[in-house]
Design a protein that fits this description.
Elements (H helix, E strand, L loop, with lengths): L8 H13 L2 E3 L24 H6 L13 E5 L7 H23 L5 H6 L2 H17 L1 E17 L2 E17 L5 E2 L8 E10 L7 E9 L8
Parallel strand pairs: 2-3
Antiparallel strand pairs: 1-3, 3-4, 4-5, 4-6, 6-7
Helix pairs in contact: 3-5
């Protein structure tokens, strides 16, 4: 599995406050809002930039393509509400940007700075820096699923599960893959607050993120 840096208590409190203080409505119109799809999209390709990443990127957005040995599978449908669909798309691009920053060993990854601000950007940079310090990146497949989108005033909350049972850290100098046995620690639950990009109506930025480790509710 790939490890995630624990969020500070202050960051968790901020994310929780966004959830508790706003009036929300789900895209599905009920309390569930869970979206699933039988097919899958990934952001890796033998080409310099994958067709999927190109289709998912807003005009003029930084590259979020990944090395061909990293596959991110976003196993979900597009919401019917345009703002929810755009927020969900760019939440996925925010995740891609973290993997790209680690692969490029670049803390100030342009895509991360495009798709995130505030606490969410700090979190992404911390994730990237963790891999820079360890001189490692990722290899394998990570799946994201059970997505739910909800409106909180002018923001959209995007929550989903992640399965890390098939993705590992890889030492960049030697190519050694740090394999681990599957466990509850392989399952994560993300809650990301997305807001409109200043000056644009077609891009959303992650502003706050909470990641729950050992999310056994995500096991299938």
């Amino acid at each position: 599995m790939r490890t995630r840096t624990a969020l500070t208590a202050a960051a968790l409190a901020t994310a929780a406050a966004l959830t508790l203080t706003a009036c929300g409505d789900s895209d599905s119109g009920d309390d569930g809002g869970t979206e699933q799809i039988e097919g899958a999209k990934d952001s890796s390709s033998d080409a310099p930039k994958s067709p999927e990443a190109e289709e998912e990127a807003p005009e003029g957005a930084p590259d979020v393509s990944l090395p061909k040995d990293i596959k991110l599978v976003f196993d979900w449908e597009e919401p019917s509400k345009p703002d929810h669909a755009a927020a969900q798309r760019d939440a996925a691009n925010y995740i891609r940007s973290q993997f790209r920053g680690s692969a490029e060993q670049q803390r100030n990854e342009p895509a991360a700075q495009f798709y995130a601000s505030g606490q969410a950007l700090t979190y992404a940079q911390d994730q990237i820096q963790q891999d820079i310090d360890a001189q490692q990146s990722a290899t394998g497949t990570e799946r994201f699923y059970r997505v739910e989108t909800k409106s909180y005033g002018t923001t959209v909350g995007v929550s989903f599960c992640a399965d890390q049972t098939k993705i590992y850290s890889k030492k960049l100098k030697t190519g050694e893959v740090l394999r681990t046995e599957p466990s509850d620690a392989d399952f994560l639950y993300y809650q990301i607050s997305m807001s409109g990009y200043p000056g644009r109506d077609d891009v959303w930025q992650a502003t706050s993120i909470e990641v729950q480790g050992e999310a056994v509710q995500c096991k299938e």
